[in-house]
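User: Fold this; tokens only.

Assistant: Input:
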Amino acid sequence: TILMLWLALAFEAVWHYVGHDVKSSYQYGKLKSSTTREEVHHHDRDHHHSVSHVQLATELVNRAGAEFMTLGFLASIIFAASNAGAFEWCVASFPPTTSKIKMPKTEADWLHLAEFVHFQLFLAMLLYFFLMARVVKGSVE
């Protein structure tokens, strides 16, 4: 428990540093665009009705943070489902012998399947944001 707490605090410190570091990143269109009002959607304008531009690195960090939060929510759902007996219900409702699809046989198998899928989503998210970070870095150089 103490190790998990320290890891969570370390993650938060790194996340804070990255979030603070990208606030000074390049922002496209620092000079206001000469685009006409008709060519730009309402949500692309600031409060002075000028065309606004995002900092790509900041946007990427914010979206990655939202994805980490979503994965944390999924982890809590898996934890709650496990403690509430939902995987026991899955074994009873989806017996492995009556299906043509290979189904988990025990409650532990269902839990491991959910954790495995959760971890695959995590790895896919890491790969996606690593690739997007390279795209952002390449676009501002």
